[in-house]
Write a structure and sequence with these properties.
765 residues; alpha/beta; TIM Barrel; 2 domains; 6-stranded parallel sheet; 27 helices; binds glutamine; binds zinc ion
Length: 765
């Protein structure tokens, strides 16, 4: 019989009641000293280790905590903070750390200097967690500069825990960074490895039994020089004498499987949820004396584990391997909420189908019991079986109506009646817009008054009618201001929406919401994704009343505003009992019905936002085509109910679309508006080269900053755009929605934007 142990790659850090968030925000406001913040961190770590121990895990994990971000912790530990942070004489390691995350403190002139700008932030693999991007130059040197990790390990040891420390591996760390100047990040490896060696030796000397070293890039398509670097690097790291558990997650290893199995480390962790098909080969290839850690419990989703199926998946491993077997979650639990204990208002049946971080710890323990003391596991296994059986046959999950509709969906449901060229003529005739038409992306400032009214209504202090009245007043206000600004295509302003996904989820069947299901997005910021548990259907119109009201106030066209199916999917926890593509198509049908109803209410322009289309791309390129095929089809199914005379817009942000331009074009929206101003319209070159066939609104100003751009600045960007895209196909709009801005700056910016459009019209005429 193998030795069976349990552990997790990492635990959430924000706190079950988001204690870290409030401590951080108080610290930034100056209400909490560094020492008090450190104390808050210490007590959270102690609690999280106690939970892991109480759940029966064999190891607790130390080193997964971070005040802002674990990659930032590594930047500081490895001594490669960019020089622009921390020149102030009174700076401390923690103040420099927060400067990397939030920008250096303002100097006495009152302006944040460009050279104090925060590090860039980007998505952690295919999750909604964002990390701070390390910056490297050819001069970058590394030194062990922070004791934080060792301090946390010592804390856990002092509390009597058996500790596994965790580190981000050197190759993944370099991969995640960006190089300034003409050199390759991998050239820094030689300088970096000795520092890692020193950290490992130190951990070993402090009595740490295991060090988990995360190299999730082994699940990516790696250039050969990166692949080759693994073997030599790990030979070198192995000299430190610490027992290393090399951890991979999020993606199958594929061509890197053999490499991962033969690296000179003491153990390997693999993601048994995302790559169950690789379990058997890893069991064969990994030398018999090594530890194999299998992630059987999904760290990326919220469903209760099918324990029987998990055990079955493990069968090839149990048969083949004599070495120790560790049971784990697929990845760190950073990506799921804390505990169902806080969800007393959740429907009890749905609740019984779920498992958050703390319930996942219990599942690991049940799996271990099933292998070691089967009689003691029966109760847990039975409970899981019953919940699963109930979920499988629940009429709340499976709707005959939805199934019939999908079956009856015609082949051409994803095609508009006529090709774009023809639609364009009909739409021009109907809309009578000038060249360089001006518009905005949808939302106007979400003021304190709007949010106050919404929470008063949710608390029952405001009647539904009074709330609706307040929202109508906001819509009227937005319409009046847009008319004053003389924009050409108006929007209602989205005052009634708390969030562009939640707003729709709350009105669709198949969605539920938690009270406290927060997941860290970055720093102190958390999101509370909806949970899609069943077939999606739209019981009644979701936006028509607001849109029709807005249109009744103006003779100019008002755009209807919808969130697209892929974005709703991407920003929710989704079903694991059917393919993502199927769920997306169901959402698409609901949006399609909404398009029809908006049209029937006289709305002539409808925007379907898909800001998350790009981020849904699988980590492996070999899977892109399949994803893009169903994702763009879902968009087209949503949009194609529209008549030729209805103009369909879409909107995308978060840059880097160049790689998928043909697929974006295949979505066949009449107009696409997108983020471009921050890259000074770089994207447009790609659009020009590819000859994007339909109309485009490249954002002419960055809405992420309160700065009001001048007319000249925006006119210059438009000229740049007009150089690659025919003027007859260009729109004029900001980069994204304006909900985070104030009215005063918004009005000034839009006034300049409209003036810039006029300038270009004059030049064209
Ligand atoms: N229509 C949305 C808004 O203006 C789009 C937001 C987004 O792209 N993220 O707020
Ligand atoms: Zn946007």
């Amino acid at each position: 019989m193998n030795t069976i142990h349990t552990h997790i790659p990492g635990y959430p850090r924000i706190g079950a009641a988001r204690e870290l968030k409030s401590a951080l925000e108080r610290h930034w406001k100056g209400e909490l000293t560094e020492a008090e913040l450190e104390e808050a961190g210490r007590s959270l770590r102690a609690r999280h280790w106690a939970e892991q121990q109480a759940a029966g895990l064999d190891y607790v994990t130390a080193g997964d905590f971070a005040f802002y971000d674990h990659v930032a912790n590594h930047i500081q530990m490895l001594g490669c903070e960019p020089a622009r942070f921390g020149f102030e004489p009174e700076s401390t390691p923690l103040s420099r750390y927060f400067a990397m995350a939030r920008g250096a403190a303002q100097c006495s002139c009152g302006h944040a200097h460009q050279d104090g700008a925060a590090l860039e932030m980007t998505k952690w693999f295919d999750t909604n967690y964002h990390y701070l991007v390390p910056e490297f130059s050819a001069e970058t040197r590394f030194h062990l500069t922070s004791e934080r990790l060792f301090g946390e390990v010592a804390e856990a040891q002092a509390l009597g825990h058996r500790v596994k420390a965790v580190l981000l591996g050197p190759l993944t760390f370099l991969w995640l960074g960006k190089a300034r100047g003409g050199f390759e990040r991998i050239e820094l490896l030689e300088r970096l490895l000795p520092v890692y060696g020193a950290i490992l030796a130190r951990l070993k000397s402090e009595g740490v039994e295991w060090v988990q070293i995360d190299e999730p890039i082994l699940g990516l398509d790696l250039p050969p020089e990166w692949r080759n670097a693994f073997e030599t690097s790990y030979w070198q790291l192995n000299q430190a004498g610490a027992q290393l558990l090399l951890a991979t997650y999020f993606s199958p290893l594929e061509e890197n499987l053999g490499l991962a199995c033969r690296l000179p480390v003491a153990g390997l962790h693999i993601d048994g949820v995302r790559a169950p098909q690789e379990l058997a080969s890893v069991a064969d290839w990994l030398p018999a004396h090594k530890v194999l850690s299998v992630g059987l419990v999904d760290g990326r989703n919220v469903w209760r584990t099918d324990l029987d199926a998990a055990l079955e998946r493990l069968a090839p491993v149990l048969e083949k391997r004599r070495g120790a077997l560790w049971l784990s979650t697929s990845c760190s639990l950073l990506h799921v909420p804390y505990s169902l204990a806080a969800e007393q208002r959740l429907d009890p049946e749905i609740r019984s189908w779920l498992a958050f971080a703390s319930e996942k710890l219990a599942e690991l323990h049940a799996l271990k019991l099933a292998l070691t003391r089967p009689a003691d596991a029966e109760a847990a296994l039975d409970a899981a079986r019953q919940a699963l059986a109930a979920r499988r046959r629940s009429p709340r999950v499976h709707s005959a109506r939805v199934a019939e509709r999908l079956a009856a969906l015609p082949e051409d449901a994803d095609r508009r009646t006529s090709p774009f060229a023809q639609r364009q003529l009909v739409q021009q005739k109907r809309l009578q817009l000038p060249v360089f038409p001006t518009t905005t992306i949808g939302s106007f400032p979400q003021t304190q008054a709007i949010r106050g009214a919404r929470s008063a209504w949710k608390r029952g202090e405001l009647t539904a009618e009074a709330y609706a009245q307040a929202m109508r007043a906001e819509i009227e206000h937005a319409i009046r201001r847009q008319e004053e600004l003389e924009l050409d295509v108006l929007v209602h302003g989205e005052a009634e929406r708390n969030d562009m996904v939640e707003y729709f989820g709350e009105q669709l069947e198949g969605f539920t919401f938690t009270a406290n299901g927060w997941v860290q997005s970055y720093g102190s910021r958390c999101v509370k994704p909806p949970i899609i548990f069943g077939d999606v259907a739209r019981p009644s119109p979701m936006t028509v009343e607001w849109a029709a009201y807005a249109q009744s106030l103006s003779s100019k066209p008002v755009k209807g505003m919808l969130t697209g199916p892929v974005t709703i999917l991407q920003w929710s926890f989704v079903r694991d009992d059917q393919p993502r593509a199927d769920t997306t198509l169901q959402i698409a049908l609901a949006i399609r019905d909404e398009v029809r109803d908006l049209e029937a209410a006289g709305i002539g322009i409808i925007q379907i936002d898909e800001p998350a289309l790009r981020e849904g791309l699988p980590l492996r390129r070999s899977r892109w085509d399949e994803y893009l095929a169903w994702a763009t089809r879902a968009f087209r199914v949503s949009a194609s109910a529209a008549a030729d005379s209805t103009q369909i817009h879409t909107h995308m942000c978060y840059a880097e679309f160049n790689v998928i331009l043909p697929q974006i074009a295949a979505m066949d929206a009449d107009v696409i508006t997108m983020e471009t101003s921050r890259s000074a319209m770089e994207l447009l070159d790609a659009f020009g080269e590819f000859r994007y066939p339909n109309e485009i609104g490249p954002g002419v100003y960055d809405i992420h900053s309160p700065r009001v751009p001048s007319q000249e600045e925006m006119a210059a960007l438009l000229r740049k755009a007009a150089a690659v895209i025919p003027a007859s196909r260009l729109w004029v709009n900001p980069d994204c929605g304006l909900k985070t801005r104030g009215w005063e700056e918004t009005e000034r910016a839009l006034r300049n934007m409209v003036a810039a459009a006029r300038e270009l019209r004059r030049e064209a005429a």
